[in-house]
Amino acid sequence: MTNGFAQEVYAVVRAIPRGYVATYGMVAELAGRPRASRIVGGVLHRNPDPSTIPCHRVVFRDGSLAPGFAFGGAAVQRRRLEEEGVQFVAGTAKNGGAEGPRVDLQQCLWDGTGYAE
DNA sequence: TTTGTGACTTTTT
DNA sequence: TAAAAAGCCACAA
Q1: Which of A12, A22, A31, A55 is catalytic?
Q2: Is the pLDDT of residue A80 over 80?
């Protein structure tokens, strides 16, 4: 690709199946830079094409999103993911202390299957 | 061309 | 167990 990494990131994020989510590190790895998780965020931050790039499917390693920096708000993103079929963890397996809405990575974490360049 | 920063992740204190 | 710091790579100014 002309740009290389950035293009790869966009391609990977676009390849995320509906109802699934991926972490920055995973996208970075598929893009060719397993340690460039931050760059993935930076690239998505600019989001040159939010229409084709479902950045809301990309979450932290913890399953949470970027508060305040999402396309329109973490709350909106949660609703959007639910629309796609992504399950959320209300409380937490930790001790019932609800910290914040997290995606159920154990169920909706994308394996990278179906990604073709 | 060089410096600084960032939607992250992992390890150590 | 929790919190803090460093490391990492690419893009923008």
Answers
A1: A55
A2: yes
Set out the domains of chain A in order of their start, with CATH numbers: 5-108 (1.10.10.10)
- pLDDT value at position A95? 46
User: Can you read off the two tokens belonging to residue A84?
Assistant: 């796609």
A36 in contact with nucleic chain C (CB within 7 A): yes
In which band, very low, low, confident or very high, does the pLDDT at A17 lie, cut at 50, 70 and 90?
very high
As ranges, strand B nucleotides with an atom below 7 A of a protein CB are 6-10
Q: Which residue in this structure is represented by tokens 């920055």?
A: A24
pLDDT confidence of residue A46: 87
Distance CA A71, CA A31 (A): 22
Instruction: Please give the single-letter amino acid code of residue A48.
Output: P
Is the shortest CB-to-strand distance from A38 to strand C under 7 Å? yes
